[in-house]
Write a structure and sequence with these properties.
The protein contains 3 helices and 9 strands. It is an alpha/beta fold. The chain has a single domain, classed as Rossmann fold. Strands 4-3-2-5-6-7 form a 6-stranded mixed β-sheet, with helices on both faces. Strands 1-9-8 form a 3-stranded antiparallel β-sheet. Strand 2, helix 2 and strand 3 form a beta-alpha-beta unit. It is globular and about 50 Å long. It binds inosinic acid and magnesium ion.
Length: about 180
């Protein structure tokens, strides 16, 4: 494993930390003590979840699901497979669907529909990164940390072929890194 960064730093750990605190305070204010279920999509949202959840105060439950629309590379398959862990009880609850990034929007759209089908009282979406230029569906992103352009990015939960999730900064991926792995 090479320790050097895979590309240019887009958002430093400090900048992410500050923005996640702001987002957490915003969400906490918006729900003002109402019971809230965070439905976090594995694996990309785990680091964001851990940091954000600690700003949300009381009355919060956390559910984990797996949703994959990506294969090993950097292009979307368009198909979204959803797997739940445990009973995933959102019936009558306000839910926030959490992911690392909104890219084509297929994942969040499919999962949101499925949570609504399970009787959630409301479903909002929250991502650390929003990549609106890649959108294929009409998705409303209710909360986002930063907007990004058409770069493939890694770090702070975001992966390339399952690597780089543990990087504290968010970086672009140099073309020569693609295919070589970490
Ligand atoms: P969507 O369904 O196309 O919006 O894709 C969402 C999923 O694609 C995210 O949960 C990520 O796992 C992955 N993804 C999209 N863009 C990137 C990126 O730039 N870096 C890493 N993963 C990405
Ligand atoms: Mg991913």
């Amino acid at each position: 494993m090479n320790d050097s960064r895979p590309g240019r730093v887009l958002f430093s750990a400090e900048a992410i930390h500050r923005r996640v605190s702001e987002l957490g305070e915003q969400i906490r204010g918006d729900y003002a003590g109402r019971p809230l279920t965070i439905v976090a999509i594995l694996k990309g949202s785990v680091i964001f979840l851990a940091d954000l959840a600690r700003h949300l105060g009381h009355g919060v439950t956390i559910e984990l699901i797996e949703a994959s629309s990506y294969g090993d590379g950097t292009t979307s398959s368009g198909q979204v497979a959803i797997r739940r862990y445990g009973k995933l009880d959102v019936q009558g609850r306000d839910a926030i669907l959490l992911d690392d990034i909104a890219d084509t929007g297929n994942t969040l759209t499919a999962v949101r529909r499925s949570l609504e089908g399970m009787g959630a009282r409301s479903v909002r979406t929250c991502v650390l990164l929003d990549k609106p230029c890649r959108r294929q569906v009409d998705l409303v992103v209710d909360y986002f940390g930063f907007e990004v352009g058409d770069d493939f990015v890694v770090g702070y939960g975001l992966d390339y072929d399952d690597y780089y999730r543990n990087l504290p900064d968010i970086c672009t991926l140099r073309p020569e890194v693609v295919g070589v792995r970490a």
